Amino acid sequence: MLLPLILLLAMEFEVMLLSLTEVSSRCGEDVVLMCEANIDVNKYLSITWYKGNKEGIIRKNLPDKLSWYDFGRNVSLNNDNSLQLAKVTPDDSGRYECMVSARVGFQNLKLPVQLTVQDCEPDVTTEGPHGPEGPQAPHLPLVWSLVGYGAVAFTKITLSIMIIWIFHICSRRKRRLGR
């Protein structure tokens, strides 16, 4: 009696891992990661896309209920259950998985996809004649910097001494007038 129940539970958690699909892209392109499984709504409960170590991206409870995880970038799920990433960057590179959860008696599927995004090149069309940050200030020699800081320090000390001297004179006059 327990043996059929144990076998049924073992089948529920069994996962069929399919071969790794590799996708390459240039920086800034839109990418579609395919979930290449023949998904029959009568056999499967949900489709979930993950990145890396089970960082959830998006989940579709069949037939059409979508829920998003806190992934940190906008994604969409196409009608064929492929994951669409707009304007990819090298940060998007990594291993993605399309996990298809099966009903009892059917097999779960795990479809891995490896995305590789090339490094971004600087956009030379938007750079001005002075580079992407605009005009650069000329580099001043260390001597000029020290002279500038010294002049500011000297001015502060001189003003402080003058203010102390004025307070001293005012307090002496008050004492003389007060007697």
UniProtKB/TrEMBL annotation:
Pfam families for this protein: Ig_3
UniProt cross-references to PROSITE patterns, sorted A to Z: IG_LIKE
Regions that span the bilayer: 142-167
Keywords, sorted A to Z: Membrane, Signal, Transmembrane, Transmembrane helix
Domain Ig-like: from-to ranges: 4-116
Signal peptide boundaries: 1-17
Superkingdom of origin: Eukaryota
InterPro entries given in the database record: Ig-like_dom (IPR007110), Ig-like_dom_sf (IPR036179), Ig-like_fold (IPR013783), Ig_sub (IPR003599), Ig_sub2 (IPR003598)
PANTHER family xrefs: CD83 ANTIGEN
Protein name as annotated: Ig-like domain-containing protein
